[in-house]
Structure to design on (558 residues):
C-alpha cells in the first residue's frame, strides 16, 4: 500500500503523464470492459433483478447446445489441423534448403491480408452446386459442401498462417547447432527431431493451438456462409437471435456462453504457455549445415507445402476469375459489370471502409505504443489492470464485442449507434493488443539508461518520450499500423452489428452479396479489398524502409 501511494505521488508530479494515465484508464474501462459488463448484465438481469431465465433457455435448447458443442469441436479441429499445417510449412522453410522459400513464405501469409471468409466464398464457387470442379468438371449437381467438411476446410485455410508465423519464429529461435550436436553423438534424424527439436517447439505449438482455438471461436464469416442449418455455430446463432428474432437478452446470453471458452484459452495462452517458452540462443556462432532432414523427407515436405500452396493459389485464382466471369457456373465470358457495380452502387461502402480504417489505424497504433511505454517504463497503481484489460479485446469474440457495443452505446449518455464514432472506437480498441505487444517487445530490448541519461541532462518526460523513446519504437508502430489497417479492412464479426445506412463496410457488402447469390459481385468486392490492402502495406513498408533503412525492413519481416 505504501508503495502504491509513493507511485501515485510520483505520478502526480507530472501532470501530463497523470492525465494520459487517467484518460487511458477511463478509455479501457469504457470501451473494453463496459461493453462486456453490459453483455453479462443483460444476460442475467431483467427488470432490475437477477434472473437465469435467458441462460436456462440457451442451455435447455437442444439446437443451441449443439451449436456450443459444434463451436468447441470446430475450434479443436482447426487448432489441431491448422497448427499441423503451419508447423509443416514453418519446419520446411526453416529446416530445409528447398527452392522457392520466399515464394512459400508469401503464399503462407496471403490469407492474413484478405477477408476471413474469402476461403468460404471460393469453396462455394469451386465445390458448390454450381461449382466449377463439382458441376463443370465432374458433373455433380447435389454436392454437400455446407456443414463441417466445408467449414473446416475454410477455417484451416484462413487460420493456418497465424500458426505458421508463430512457429516460424519459434523454430528460428532454436539453435540448429543443438540438432547438429545430437546427430554427431549418434542420434538418427528422426530421434533428434523427436527428442530435441519437437520438445523445444512444443510451447510454441501449444501457443499456436490456443490462438487458433480463440480465432475459430471468434470467427463469424466462414460459419455464416458454410455452416448451414445442420451444423449450427454459436457465434452465428447469437447474430441470428438478435437480427432475426430481435431478442437482445437471449443473444447476449449466447454471447456470454461463447465468452467462457475464449477467455479460458486466452489466459492459458498468455499466462501458462508463455512462461514455458525456451530460448536456445547463446550468443555463440550458430552456423550450421542442414542435416536434420534427409533428401527424401525434404522433397516429401516440399511436395506437401506445394500442395497447400496450390490450394491457396486456386482459391485466389477462383476469386479473380469469379470477379470477371459474367455468371459464375453458367456463363464464364469475361465482363467488367461486377466492378461497375462495386464502383457504382457499392462505392459508398468502399469509401466508408477506407475512411474508417484510415482514421482508426493511426490512433490504434499510437495508443498501443503509449500503453506499451506506460506498462514497461512506468510504475503506478493500476498498471497491470491497464495491461490485462487492453489485451483482453484479443480474447473476446467479435460477436460478443459487437453485441456489447450495441447494448453499451445505444442510449444516453453514450448514444453512438449508427455513427462513425462507434465503428472507429470498435476498431481502435479491438486491434491495439498487437501494437501493445510489439511496443513491449521493443522497449524491453532498449536499455532504460538511455532515457535516464536524457532526463539527467534536463529533458522532461514529454521531451524524452518524443525525442528518445518514440523514435526507437517507430518500427513497432509501423508494424502495428499494418496489422490494424488489415484487420479494420477485413473485419466482419463485430462490425456487422454496428454498420448502418450512413456507414457501411465492404466486408458486410461481400457477405450480403454471397447471401443473395451474387457471387460475381462478392468476388469483385473481395478483389478490390485485397488490392487496397496490398497498396497500403506497400506504402507503409516503403515509408518505413525509406526512413529507417535495414532496421525497418528487418522489423517488417518479423
Amino acid at each position: 500500500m505504501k508503495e502504491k501511494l509513493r507511485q501515485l505521488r510520483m505520478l502526480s508530479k507530472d501532470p501530463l503523464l497523470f492525465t494520459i494515465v487517467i484518460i487511458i484508464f477511463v478509455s479501457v474501462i469504457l470501451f473494453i470492459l463496459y461493453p462486456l459488463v453490459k453483455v453479462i448484465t443483460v444476460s442475467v438481469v431483467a427488470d432490475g433483478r437477477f434472473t437465469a431465465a435467458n441462460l436456462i433457455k440457451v442451455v435447455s435448447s437442444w439446437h443451441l447446445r449443439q451449436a456450443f458443442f459444434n463451436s468447441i469441436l470446430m475450434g479443436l479441429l482447426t487448432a489441431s489441423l491448422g497448427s499441423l499445417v503451419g508447423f509443416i510449412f514453418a519446419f520446411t522453410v526453416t529446416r530445409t534448403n528447398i527452392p522457392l522459400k520466399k515464394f512459400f513464405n508469401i503464399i503462407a501469409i496471403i490469407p492474413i491480408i484478405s477477408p476471413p471468409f474469402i476461403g468460404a466464398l471460393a469453396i462455394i464457387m469451386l465445390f458448390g452446386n454450381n461449382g466449377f470442379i463439382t458441376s463443370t468438371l465432374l458433373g455433380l449437381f447435389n454436392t454437400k459442401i455446407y456443414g463441417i467438411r466445408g467449414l473446416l476446410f475454410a477455417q484451416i485455410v484462413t487460420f493456418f498462417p497465424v500458426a505458421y508465423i508463430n512457429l516460424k519464429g519459434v523454430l528460428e529461435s532454436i539453435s540448429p547447432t543443438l540438432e547438429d550436436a545430437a546427430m554427431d553423438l549418434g542420434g538418427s534424424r528422426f530421434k533428434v527431431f523427436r527428442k530435441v527439436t519437437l520438445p523445444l517447439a512444443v510451447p510454441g505449438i501449444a501457443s499456436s493451438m490456443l490462438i487458433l482455438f480463440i480465432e475459430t471461436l471468434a470467427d463469424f464469416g466462414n460459419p455464416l456462409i458454410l455452416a448451414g442449418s445442420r451444423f449450427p455455430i454459436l457465434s452465428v446463432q447469437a447474430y441470428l437471435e438478435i437480427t432475426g428474432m430481435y431478442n437482445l437478452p437471449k443473444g447476449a446470453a449466447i454471447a456470454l456462453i461463447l465468452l467462457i471458452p475464449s477467455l479460458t484459452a486466452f489466459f492459458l495462452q498468455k499466462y501458462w504457455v508463455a512462461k514455458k517458452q525456451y530460448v536456445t540462443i547463446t550468443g555463440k556462432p550458430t552456423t550450421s549445415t542442414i542435416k536434420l532432414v534427409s533428401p527424401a523427407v525434404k522433397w516429401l515436405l516440399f511436395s506437401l507445402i506445394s500442395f497447400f500452396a496450390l490450394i491457396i493459389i486456386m482459391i485466389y485464382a477462383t476469386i479473380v476469375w469469379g470477379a470477371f466471369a459474367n455468371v459464375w457456373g453458367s456463363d464464364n465470358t469475361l465482363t467488367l459489370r461486377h466492378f461497375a457495380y462495386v464502383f457504382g452502387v457499392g462505392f459508398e461502402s468502399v469509401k466508408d471502409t477506407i475512411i474508417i480504417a484510415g482514421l482508426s489505424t493511426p490512433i490504434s497504433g499510437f495508443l498501443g505504443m503509449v500503453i506499451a511505454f506506460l506498462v514497461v517504463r512506468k510504475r503506478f497503481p493500476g498498471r497491470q489492470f491497464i495491461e490485462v484489460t487492453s489485451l483482453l479485446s484479443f480474447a473476446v469474440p467479435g460477436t460478443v464485442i459487437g453485441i456489447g457495443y450495441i447494448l453499451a452505446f445505444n442510449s444516453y449518455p453514450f448514444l453512438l449507434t449508427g455513427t462513425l464514432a462507434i465503428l472507429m472506437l470498435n476498431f481502435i480498441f479491438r486491434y491495439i493488443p498487437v501494437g501493445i505487444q510489439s511496443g513491449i517487445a521493443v522497449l524491453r530490448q532498449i536499455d532504460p539508461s538511455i532515457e535516464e541519461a536524457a532526463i539527467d541532462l534536463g529533458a522532461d518526460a514529454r521531451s524524452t518520450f518524443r525525442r528518445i523513446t518514440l523514435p526507437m519504437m517507430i518500427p513497432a508502430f509501423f508494424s502495428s499500423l499494418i496489422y490494424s489497417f488489415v484487420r479494420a479492412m477485413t473485419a466482419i464479426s463485430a462490425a456487422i452489428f454496428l454498420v448502418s445506412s450512413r456507414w457501411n463496410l465492404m466486408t458486410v457488402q461481400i457477405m450480403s452479396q454471397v447471401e443473395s447469390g451474387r457471387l460475381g459481385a462478392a468476388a469483385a468486392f473481395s478483389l478490390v479489398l485485397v488490392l487496397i490492402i496490398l497498396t497500403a502495406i506497400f506504402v507503409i513498408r516503403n515509408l518505413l524502409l525509406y526512413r529507417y533503412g535495414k532496421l525497418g525492413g528487418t522489423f517488417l519481416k518479423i
User: Anything to note?
Assistant: DSSP finds 25 helices and four strands in the chain. Confidence is low (pLDDT under 50) at residues 281-289, 550-558. The radius of gyration is 25 Å. The CA atoms of residues 116 and 338 lie 21 Å apart.
